[in-house]
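We emphasize that the prediction below concerns an isolated chain of 869 residues; any contacts that depend on oligomerization or on bound cofactors are therefore not represented. The input was used exactly as deposited, without trimming of termini.
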Amino acid sequence: MKPWSRRTERGAIGVMLLTMLLSCSGNNREEPDVGVPIELARQRAARISDLIYSLTFRIPESAGEPLGGSLVLSFSLSQASQPLILDFRAPTANLEAVTSGGIPVSFEFKRGQIILPVKVLKEGRNTFEFTFKPTDVALNRRREYMYTLFVPDRAATAFPCFDQPDLKARYRLVLDLPEGWLVLANGSPAGSLQVGEHRVARFRETEPLSTYQFAFAAGRFQVVERKIGDRTLRMFHRETDRAKLARNVDAIFDLHALALKRMEEYTGIPLPFQKFDFILLPAFQFGGMEHPGAIYYRDSHLLLEPTATRSDELRRASLIAHETSHMWFGNLVTMRWFDDVWMKEVFANFMAAKIVNPAYPEIDHELRFLLAHQPTAYDVDRSLGTHPIRQKLDNLDHAASLYGPIIYEKAPVVMRQLEVLLGPDTLQQGLRRYLDRFRYSNAGWDDLIGILDELSPEDLRAWSHAWVEEAGRPVVTIEATGHTQSGTSFEVHQSDPLGRDLHWSEELHVTAGGADGIRRGTVHLRGPAASFDLAGLNRPSFILPSDDGLGYGFFRLDEPSRRVLLSGIPGDLPPAARAAAWLSLWDGVLAGDIEPRAFTDAALDALAHEPDELLQEHLLGRIVTAVWATGLWQDAELVKKAEGLLWKRVEAPGGAASKLASLRAFASLVRSESGVERLYRLWKGETPVEGLELGETDATRLALEVALRKEGEQASSVLDEQLARLQNPDRRDEFEFVSAAVAPSGDDREALFEQITAGLGTVRENWALESLHYLTHPLRGRETGPRILAALRLLPQVESNGSIFFPKRWLDALLWGQSSPEAGKLVEEYLRTSPELPLRLRRKVLQSADVLLRITGLRDSIRRPGRPG
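Result of the prediction step, given as a token string:
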């Protein structure tokens, strides 16, 4: 029996038990579970249809005053013999009235659930009215603006609803707004009415949406409007720098228009929603969020600085393509349950590559795909906290824990392998059938596999088991086994590092080189071993088991290959193969095959000869990580070498983007007094570098890095001057908050840490994360230990008070760059003394602490979650 079938069987039993419990009377009735258990979700989805939310919110101008809300809820009920549970996670006093046809009805309200008894229900059409006050949990209220953010299960904190993805509804929204506020919502504007100093805005009824897709933002925004073809696009923003807007606005609209055009062509389905607007929000929690008709973006991801690197430009293009793709993958067809949330993300990333790549023909997209996905996915998949792409989820209350690099970065590699397995045309045909068959509805991975099975003879369920249903990656090795008349024979071996005897099926492109030159071959790995020949190669000196973005695994290099590649990766290898070699070498460092100093020296030396800008940026980032995460920052000789090479690159002739990438790495690594002084004079404008113009974002970051390394009045003056330079009120607010993390006063730093840890849920996440990075920076020495342990102990509160990415990002900010035995022991102590820590959070700790635990030799003493021993 397949895993999904087993869950379905258990779910049916759970529904029967829940129904029996709810139908009982008296004090012996068992309390319903907190959140939305899967059994409850299935029961409601089987009973409820044709759902309409008619919502009115009254928004005061002051963020300190509560919102008011009312709801007319209308739905069809197929079976009225059991009570009906709605979700509303708010204090009891926030639910003011429940009526039907204006007549009060009986109900129970406890533990975040409104229970309507059988006597108020009927088969067929039901209508109830609710008067309530939303909580601020998902309203993100700021000075002069606010925005909702309900993913994955936060709609129930704002209004009574059935907060599960497979109960799609149509929304009718009315907002009572302060004078001068503009508003963005899913539906098109349907008129407004001035009432005293308020404006009442109405919106057209939406297409069917899941609760997490419902959204509105209101405040003092500006709007830029463009008509492209027969479609009007609107951009809401709060940017005050006219030059920054003028520099970026054309590209932003053009990239959206391109993404829409390509998606309509690929899917054969016109934009399935009534309009296409988007908003740029200061310090938004994510890069973007795909609400239909109201996409949110973090403003800094779209409004680039004049010296933006090519990677910055590509990230912006990919982000826009990703969120636009969601209009089809995720919004038109939505996962039935959040265990398949990865589907919407993988197809958004998959389509983003198809959209962006043709627009940048000068870019090596094989290289870009590899660098965009494998490094981040490997960071998780090599750790003790790894997990499958598709994860079990019993309660929607824990849906946020499913998000992370495995679904965002590993899954696109897996989907690319599926496209190779099926062929591009077959996959496109299958996806078109999938979107058409389930439009404005819900579907799961099994539904898509069933469609693809109709089109292909491949055993896709066996393929899916290894790649989608199981955790980890194969360990792949290659050895030369003999010589043929024309070349060399090789044997490829794969093994399961988790001891399950699991075999992954994948196509590998192998590169080997020697005195005869470079040769490339293809091997189809299906079982534990496979063999192939490379013609024209008699004595290979190195072997790369995978040389592009298609292969996925720990491609463990043999000793001769490690030695050759560390001495200098051949320049005649394609850029993607050079990148793959660096990934394998870094894997070797973490596996204990290569000394960190040898790797870092090799990477520094390679910078002088690496011509590809994307690969240069990767090497710079890897050098920064290696220096801090492996403790090399205490190696004065190495740091001196790194400072000299990086500053030489800053001053060398060349493009501004290359200079800026090197400057960012230099600012992160610099330790010598002369280096800090050099950085200070550049920030101050006293010794500018020809061809390098610092944008506001980079100047702000340099000010923080300089202040971290200076003391007393010097640090204070840098922070004061940088604050005076900032004109945008949102960026001033952010800098005033974060700069306390590098203030010269230890009391100020400690006060900020206490403010962050005491204010979870109210302090802006991005501000807190950047501050935490500096507050626990290795250069802070003994200050960091108590903060690390205190911040670790807050992890459950971080999860309950933050967005979907907050727990992992909290841990990354806390543990990035930590390499001391003391820090490792703090993590070990926390895990050992926290047996109640949920598995989902324990995994995230192990993911973020993986390098620290390896470097300090503590990894082997911590058992993998969910496995014995």
